UniProtKB/TrEMBL annotation:
The lineage of its organism: Bacteria, Bacillati, Actinomycetota, Actinomycetes, Glycomycetales. This is Transcriptional regulator, BadM/Rrf2 family. InterPro entries: Tscrpt_reg_Rrf2, WH-like_DNA-bd_sf, WH_DNA-bd_sf. GO terms for cellular component: cytosol. GO terms for molecular function: DNA binding; DNA-binding transcription factor activity. The keyword Thylakoid does not apply.
Length: 151
């Protein structure tokens, strides 16, 4: 599983908006808060706006704010808004794969891996990501000693 730079930046921006909710925050303030290139932040905010996750407000007090409460937006929604599906196998959804011979069972493995990724990203709200008060399942996963070890 890999989160793109675009996906990481989108989550960081979204968590910053969650932390400031319901305030409106300018793109330049969001970019500076996360040390991101302003232009890239603006492109990501456009993606989030088109996905109806953020609203843009014009004027002196303009900027961006979450379109729903941070408790009602999952990290998975943010990632999908900027990167598309959470799991693909060579550009195809796991259930669209099929193999012959010894590899015939691999689609089940790909679907299981996608389900595991979904259970984490869709199970964590922006509010939880902002406060660090993760659901028990996620907290247990991060408490496992080897979870922090590279492989």
């Amino acid at each position: 599983m890999q989160v793109s730079a675009r996906g990481e930046y989108a989550v960081r921006i979204s968590v910053t908006l969650a932390h400031g909710h319901p305030r409106t925050i300018s793109a330049s303030t969001l970019a500076a808060a996360q040390e991101l290139p302003r232009k890239f932040a603006e492109v990501i905010l456009g993606d989030l706006r088109r996905a109806h996750l953020v609203d843009s407000v014009r004027g002196v007090e303009g900027g961006y704010r979450l379109s729903r409460a941070p408790e009602d937006i999952s990290v998975g929604e943010v990632l999908r808004a900027v990167d598309g599906p959470l799991s693909e196998i060579r550009g195809r959804r796991p259930e669209e794969t099929s193999y012959e011979g010894a590899a015939v069972n691999l689609p089940r493995l790909w679907v299981a891996a996608r389900a595991a990724v979904r259970s984490v990203f869709d199970g964590v709200s922006l509010a939880q990501a902002a406060t660090g008060e993760f659901p028990l399942r996620v907290a247990e996963l991060t408490a496992e000693e080897d979870a922090w070890m590279p492989r």
